[in-house]
């Protein structure tokens, strides 16, 4: 039998729960997802895995966001590696990458797509 | 790939460097490296740093993956026990066989243990490998005293390690002086004097006759002169001997006193076998340093790649820090060359000794000895290596304050001058790197690897690169990051003059892009120093490091530690009980800090507000341990209780701590107040320290402990209370105004043109006419103080930030603790896998 994972949009919180130019963590289908809110960008919300693969702790939502050489990034609060908000790619180490979750604003609701 | 098989015996520093070089040359050989130690090559040179807290894993030069990626077969923990030269095969202890076309021996050396009865006692150790280090640490645990046998370079390094392990440390040396190989008699004497001042006991001209069970300690050493020394452990560091056993058994030529004989191609007496590193004997000499070994490795790799290469001996000059004492030795340190003349400078008060040895006509430098001050080392070495003609008065090179020292600028060096001897990088190589597009120090380091070995050439390299860059018309960029073309000091000035109150204002006016984790916290700190708003006010939120955001210190597992303020280290029994109760209730690991406070570890993000509600209710305030801010003002008990105290140091410490608490600065600030000159509060190791005198207070500034300890300088004497506080106000505000990001007071002062005298002029004589402004600014910061935690727990909006999940209650389930010595500690990854799996399977069973 073929198991097809179904991805669905799940509402996780409201815009008011987000903090501008910073991150929060949400629990989506058992996974910890870091959601960053950059109100002045086109996409506005970005979602990456909350686990820091280098420091091995769930802390990415607590990093500082910004840009480096034109890429939007978040810096790990533990050892300060930078990760691209769109691709999850670590700028300092090509072998390290964070999972990226599809995320959108539906009116005032923040929705994330994750395994069901 | 071709089918030539290269086998390397020994995966130490040199064996690894050989493999790395050969792989880099792309010869396509089948390479096998066989090591006796259970782990891939590591940096032996920096082994001692493990005693100061560096993880052994950080010393690794390679991992198993490195070799896999390079296509190199690597074997660990299985030494070669036989070479079958006729069959061209090596055999390991476990019986594995490897064929070779070319064999490279890089078996290094072993520590020599003199044949003294009792030296095989289990508390007699050596110091060469990571495993040795573990044994030394283990033995030190139940020792009070430790002896190092051998007063050479390694012995003294080992003595430092024992001292760091808090042992009463002795050095026993057979010869009449320390470091006899590198130092002349005068230098050796000065070194001894300095080391003894640190509390290390030095015994020279001592011949150990036997080691027996002791009465007062585990062991007793009986010397030939009838003296006896009790000790709990002994580390032998009496020289090294080449590991040439395999070569002997295979009937390769070895030296009379050991060492595998090699020629200038690093070939042994079998032309298919090379030997490199500390096992090799070249020109009757063993080279006991890593750089010559690296040169040999390169010589062999190049030959195998079909390039001609020769080993031509190597310079054994060294510069190092032993027990915190700078020591340098260049060339003919003992003036053995006939007709040479010496210039000696000795200052017993500053404990500095310098000697240069020149040719009879005074034109060429032949050697040098430096103890206590190595500032001249780089310059002297360049004179020596490149045969640059000395100035007419050679002594001017070592005599301080004899007018302007003829500085040998980077520009004066010939292109052939070696800058980095670890990686053999010349000035020419660096210029080439700059020509081919490197435009910063970091890029040059990455490209040439200069200064990535022992780091001794860092200052010289920086000068050279900056010199070359400015010669090319490149202005050296001191911007804080890519978003602001300014230094922190400039940003501070811009914010103050322009009355900019938010990061966005700053970015709009003076920056570009969106900011990053460098400039955001730096600007936030400037805003806090200038305007002192709560760090969690909306416009400042996203700017803070996580520690400032959550008003606590993040630990490696993502939990936080909590440090309430205990001003001056004074605390009532009731408050002490509250700390214990809170720690117990929330399962917090409790530890006393060096700053006389109590640190509570393992607090989860969502519990922080609850914890602080209880602490605030009991009268505690935040301790700002998370901020670049005033941390603690340590104190001794002072005249109130102490028989020697001359002033109330506790009272003063509490006053100072309460005055400056919460003051944001470019870096953390620490202080202390001692009640008399016995200095029990260690005020001279602080950013500003106060020591009581019969007539008032002495103020010291710009000291620090930590990685690079520095004693504070005496700034002003016999001050009354009011003047003392006035000077500190001015000093701190001037620092906040003018220091660079993350620059501690000590480095700040070193970089102030004019140094301490200038600082005195500004703070005491008001030479810039800014003192009243500085005082006003301080008054306004002091007047607007708020306990950040008190404000936070009363503001529902701010409290929202502390939820672990925006959409669920509770904490991070992957934060797991285990018990150790009766308290919680974070589970290690391997423990976590077990524990989390157990929880998961228990949950699944429900
Ligand atoms: C504490 C300490 C501090 C030092 N500080 C400095 C310094 O400041 N500057 C400096 O230049 N040098 C310093 N040195 C010296 C430097 O570490 C050595 O010069 C360098 O490590 C030599 O490299 P090597 O590869 O020849 O030997 P090693 O690094 O000793 O490597 C030899 C390896 O071969 C293995 N081996 C031996 N026999 C076999 C066999 N039969 N089969 C398989 N494997 C085998 C050994 O186990 C070892 O791992 C220091 C050394 C120590 C111990």
Automatic annotation (TrEMBL), chain A:
List keywords of the entry alphabetically: 2Fe-2S, Iron, Iron-sulfur, Metal-binding, Nitrate assimilation, Oxidoreductase
Which Gene Ontology biological process is one annotated for this entry? nitrate assimilation
| A Pfam family recorded for this sequence | Rieske_2
- CDD domains from the entry? Rieske_NirD
Q: Which PROSITE patterns match?
A: NIRD (PS51300), RIESKE (PS51296)
UniProt GO molecular function: 2 iron, 2 sulfur cluster binding; metal ion binding; nitrite reductase [NAD(P)H] activity
What InterPro entries does its record include? Answer: NirD (IPR017881), Rieske-like_NirD (IPR012748), Rieske_2Fe-2S (IPR017941), Rieske_2Fe-2S_sf (IPR036922)
Gene3D superfamilies the record matches: Rieske [2Fe-2S] iron-sulphur domain
Oxidoreductase listed as a keyword: yes
Residue ranges occupied by any Rieske domain in the UniProt entry: 10-112
Query: Which SUPFAM superfamilies does this UniProt record tie to the protein?
Result: ISP domain (SSF50022)
The entry's protein name is Nitrite reductase small subunit NirD
Species lineage, top-down? Bacteria, Pseudomonadati, Pseudomonadota, Gammaproteobacteria, Cellvibrionales
From TrEMBL, chain B:
Q: Where does [4Fe-4S] cluster bind?
A: 636, 642, 676, 680
Q: Which cofactor does it need?
A: siroheme; [2Fe-2S] cluster; FAD; [4Fe-4S] cluster
Q: Where is the FAD/NAD(P)-binding domain?
A: 5-284
Q: Which GO terms describe its biological process?
A: nitrate assimilation
Q: Which InterPro entries match?
A: BFD-like_2Fe2S-bd_dom, BFD-like_2Fe2S-bd_dom_sf, FAD/NAD-bd_sf, FAD/NAD-binding_dom, FAD/NAD-linked_Rdtase_dimer_sf, NasD-like, NiRdtase/SiRdtase_haem-b_fer, Nit/Sulf_reduc_fer-like_dom_sf
Could you tell me which residue ranges the Nitrite/Sulfite reductase ferredoxin-like domain spans?
Answer: 555-617
Return the cofactor note field. Binds 1 siroheme per subunit. Binds 1 [4Fe-4S] cluster per subunit.
Q: Which UniProt keywords apply?
A: 2Fe-2S, 4Fe-4S, FAD, Flavoprotein, Heme, Iron, Iron-sulfur, Metal-binding, Nitrate assimilation, Oxidoreductase
Similarity field? Belongs to the nitrite and sulfite reductase 4Fe-4S domain family.
Q: What is the official name of this protein in its record?
A: Nitrite reductase large subunit
Source organism per UniProt: Parahaliea mediterranea
Q: Taxonomic classification, please?
A: Bacteria, Pseudomonadati, Pseudomonadota, Gammaproteobacteria, Cellvibrionales
